Request: fold
Amino acid sequence: MQNWSTYLTPGAVESQLGLFCLGAGEQMHDAKPAPDRALGCHALVWLREGRGHLLHGPDRQLHVVRAPAMLWLFPGVLHGYRPATRWRQAWTLFSGPATAALTSLGHLDPSQPVRRYGDPRPIDRAFTRLLRVSTQHNAVQLTGALYDLIGQAGTSSGDGVAARLAELACTPMSIQDYASELGLTVNELRDAVRRTTGSTPHELVLSTRLSSAKVLLAEEDLSVAAVARRVGYDDPAYFSRLFAARVGMSPVAFRRSGSISGPISSL
Reply:
């Protein structure tokens, strides 16, 4: 692998995408300490070979690093490399207003500056794609590749809980019952859902029910009352009011205008 780098200066329109890449590249890092510094943006460093430590934060804490691993560097936060062997790494710099939402979702977490993965192949593929796209002058593809990389690499221990809750969402239960069904406390359920969706279990259940209702209204020959029961509501009038408040139109109006295929049922 040869050392190479590209640095990018997003224009006004590219900046409106919410997340933009400022640079990317690959390099070999010798087995000697690098000067400590703080960046003005976010960075991801994908360590493909090597081991050592990452100095991170104002307390200068040393974190063990062993490839394959992702190093997460944050704006204004002091960091420094302490390689014990030669490092082979890929890197990218990025910024944008979307980083605030990614932080809220737990993908950008300063408390986890080093992450390792049971299966590093998806992360390696995502980083390889980003490196390739970074030289092609396509802002949309590059932003997509950056989101994909962060989504793959930001996987947390709570991942999977939100998907499992969504599978149960149309079964009428209390949040306590959902948590018990998943083998969690209510607080553990709340924390896991927040990390991956940024919302609460109640909001996830509600949005899942409404999304399921849209599918049924658009694609099935069911009455509104039957749709309401399918997604967990015994009272069709309450379901209709809730649907209208959240979706902006009644179930009947959605059936008429919210589907590409068009209505196929009678009400």
About this structure: The longest helix spans residues 201-219. The CA atoms of residues 37 and 192 lie 33 Å apart.
